[in-house]
C-alpha cells in the first residue's frame, strides 16, 4: 500500500482533503462515506446500505419455506363476518378534507 501525502484545504470555516479520482475508484467511494476516528487515525469507508441484502434474504427465506403468494391470500371467516356487518357511515356521503 502506497503512502500518499496531501495538504489540508480550507472549505468555509472547516478544512478538508482532496482525494485523487484514481484513489476514489479504487476504494469505491461514490457519494456518501462513513468517517470514524480510531486511536490517532481517521478511517474513511464507503457508507453501508442498511438494507443491503434484504431482498436476497427474503427470497431465500421464501424459497426455504415454500410460501407462495396464493397461500398468503387466505380469507379469514371471522374478518369476513365483521366486514359484512352494517355500518351507518357506509350509507352517508362524505369527502376528504
Question: What is the secondary structure topology, with strand pairs?
Answer:
Layout: E1 9-11, E2 14-16, H1 21-27, E3 33-38, E4 41-46, H2 54-65, H3 69-72, H4 77-84, H5 88-91
Antiparallel strand pairs: 1-2, 3-4
What does this molecule look like?
- The structure is a single chain.
- The chain has about 100 residues and is α+β, with helices and mostly antiparallel strands.
- Helix content is about 35%, strand content about 20%.
- The protein contains 5 helices and 4 strands.
- The protein has helices at about 20-25, 55-65, 70, 75-85, 90; strands at about 10, 15, 35-40, 40-45.
- It has a two-stranded antiparallel sheet. A two-stranded antiparallel ribbon has the order 3-4.
- A hairpin with a 2-residue loop joins β1 (about 10) and β2.
- It is elongated.
- The termini are far apart.
- The model has no long low-confidence stretch (mean pLDDT about 80).
Strand order of the largest sheet: 1-2
What is the distance, rounded to the nearest whole angstrom, between the alpha carbons of the first and last residues?
Answer: 63 Å
Most strands sheet: 2 strands, antiparallel
Contiguous runs where pLDDT drops below 50 for at least 5 residues: none
Radius of gyration: 28 Å
Which descriptors would you attach to this protein?
97 residues, alpha+beta, two-stranded antiparallel sheet, 4 strands, 36% helix
Brief summary:
The chain is α+β, with helices and mostly antiparallel strands and 97 residues long. 36% of the residues lie in helices and 19% in strands.
Amino acid at each position: 500500500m502506497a503512502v500518499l501525502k496531501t495538504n489540508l484545504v480550507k472549505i468555509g470555516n472547516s478544512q478538508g482533503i482532496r482525494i485523487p479520482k484514481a484513489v476514489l475508484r479504487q476504494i469505491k467511494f461514490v457519494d456518501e462515506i462513513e468517517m470514524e476516528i480510531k486511536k490517532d487515525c481517521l478511517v474513511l469507508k464507503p457508507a453501508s446500505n442498511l438494507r443491503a441484502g434484504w431482498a436476497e434474504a427474503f427470497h431465500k427465506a421464501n424459497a426455504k419455506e415454500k410460501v407462495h403468494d396464493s397461500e398468503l391470500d387466505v380469507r379469514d371467516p371471522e374478518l369476513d363476518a365483521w366486514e359484512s356487518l352494517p355500518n351507518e357511515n357506509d350509507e352517508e356521503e362524505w369527502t376528504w378534507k
